[in-house]
Design goal:
Length: 178
Amino acid sequence: MGGAETERALAGESRSDESLRYPQRPEHPGTAQLIAYWHTKRAVRPMPDRADIAPGELAGLLPNIVISEVLRDGEDFRVRIFGTALVELVGEERTGKCLSEFGVDAFIPTKPERVQSHWFDVTRRSFVVRHPVLVSGTMASSNRSYISWHGVSMPLTSGGSEVAQMLGGIFVVDAGCR
């Protein structure tokens, strides 16, 4: 990611977005478990390699997992794994799609530009800082918040030292109408 893109990605650190929060510590057992797994797999390295990630070791978390590959130095990201709980949550199968395509084919009414903006913000933060980024927020339909969630995005290498893939997870906290 070039200088201007890096600055734009990190500028979000001070931006106030009422729909996303960036907590310092995990606030959900699923994000805590996924971060602990990431730290175990990285050992003494800055981040783990994709080859270190064994889906069988994440069996209980797999429905909530996202793995994407970095495209054009973080300009976009293509989803390789999008958990079944996430498909149900967002109303769209996103395996094989780029973040820039999110929300377009959703069977739940959504605003694609907002969906894409949130996913890019979180994923690029982790890509740039090269460590886990926690996030929480709400999902809305018809201008009503109705689902609270917690997530994490974490970088992975792929046979080298540069960020090549991203590992993440999203976990629902409250699915009640408000």
